[in-house]
Write a structure and sequence with these properties.
Blueprint: H1 2-31, H2 34-54, H3 62-83, H4 86-99, H5 102-112, H6 115-163
Helix pairs in contact: 1-4, 1-5, 2-3
Length: about 160
């Protein structure tokens, strides 16, 4: 009986503390509305998905265009189902726990529960959506440089392989 008491005293606080840490991480996940953010991400990706499917169709053929649209929605549903899986949520919670202490998580959650914090949660996805065209434009402007780097890399790789023969 004495050993049971010692075991309980030594290990019970740790398990309560670990559970409290996980609860704080889950509160952050919830207050940041991560799943809603995933939904916005999936919807924002849908035009790119549609564009990918569109590469393979005759745009003048209405049936093929409809099929591409249907597949872009199925693709979005697939992403949404993945994003909403318990495994993804658990992984994110573990990441939070690995970066933040329980006290830090509680402080962060407290901020996000304030009106200013709620505005951040609400506005960040909208700001990201507004930034997307700017980033895409910059990526398109950089594409020739990226292509040239890729060509240079392949040439350098071939020279390296040739010299090792």
């Amino acid at each position: 009986m004495k050993y049971l008491f010692v075991w309980a005293v030594l290990f019970f606080p740790f398990s309560v503390s670990a559970d409290a840490h996980a609860e704080s991480a889950e509160k952050l996940f919830d207050v940041l509305k991560i799943e809603e953010s995933f939904d916005v991400t999936a919807e924002n990706l849908r035009p790119a998905m549609l564009s990918q499917y569109g590469q393979f169709i005759d745009a003048e053929n209405g049936d093929e265009a409809s099929l591409a649209v249907s597949y872009s929605y199925m693709h979005k549903k697939l992403l949404t189902d993945i994003y909403h899986s318990k495994r993804i949520k658990d992984e994110i919670i573990e990441l939070y726990k690995g970066v933040f202490t329980k006290d830090e998580l509680d402080t962060i959650v407290a901020f996000y529960l304030t009106p200013a914090g709620q505005k951040v949660v609400y506005e960040i996805p909208r700001l990201q959506q507004k930034m997307q065209p700017v980033l895409m434009s910059e990526m398109q402007r950089a594409q020739p440089l990226v292509n040239s780097l890729m060509v240079e890399f392949k040439e350098e790789l071939q020279r390296m392989r040739d010299s090792n023969r």
